[in-house]
């Protein structure tokens, strides 16, 4: 288990466009593993490679649903529909939150760690996580999209996490 340091805003690396992965090397597979370790350690639901200082198009997501850990290389949104509006946070901007309008459902295509093409459709929290993490690969932070953006008291942070878990549980039931 290797936890990498999460880059915090302000940092130029968070505002740059990440490069496509041309070849899945052992270093890329190690990066995927480390990114998941780092995300779980920080109690996050998603992490993009620029957040550990690496400008490559790689994301990991786990919203606690049946998909479990999603590792995706060169992810691309190929379809989106509907709309949702709700709170979002980011591991690179601890202690803050903002309400962001997102598509309610997205279909994302990319490669897994074996180089096999995978396509995943997600709604609600998973759709939000995909859009948030893919934005990171394009140097876009949610704060640029948020309709309101505010500092959260530490005691509310825990409640926010519980709400996200609840949302993931509700999706499972649907
Ligand atoms: Ni983020």
Q: pLDDT average, as an integer?
A: 94
User: What gross morphology would you assign?
Assistant: globular
Work out the radius of gyration: 15 Å
Major β-sheet profile: 5 strands, antiparallel
Q: Which structural category fits the helices and strands?
A: alpha+beta
The helix/strand series, from N terminus to C terminus, equals HEEEEEEEHEH
Segments where pLDDT lies below 50 for 5+ residues?
none
Bound molecules: nickel (II) ion
Portion of residues within helices = 25-40%
Distance between the termini: 34 Å
Strand content: 25-35%
How many β strands by DSSP?
8
> Helix tally?
3
Provide the spatial order of strands within the biggest beta sheet: 1-2-3-6-7
Q: Gist?
A:
The chain has 174 residues and is of the alpha+beta class.
List the topology elements.
Layout: H1 26-41, E1 46-48, E2 58-61, E3 70-81, E4 84-88, E5 96-102, E6 105-111, E7 117-123, H2 124-137, E8 148-151, H3 154-173
Antiparallel strand pairs: 1-2, 2-3, 3-6, 4-5, 5-8, 6-7
Nickel (II) ion is lined by residues 90-92, 132, 136.
Describe this structure in words.
The protein has 174 residues and is an alpha+beta fold. It is 29% helix and 28% strand. It is built from 3 helices and 8 strands; from the N terminus they run αβββββββαβα. The chain has helices at 26-41, 124-137, 154-173; strands spanning 46-48, 58-61, 70-81, 84-88, 96-102, 105-111, 117-123, 148-151. The strands form 2 sheets. The protein has a 5-stranded antiparallel sheet. A hairpin with an 8-residue loop joins β2 (58-61) and β3. The longest helix is centred in the last third of the chain and has 20 residues, at 154-173. The model has no long low-confidence stretch (mean pLDDT 94).
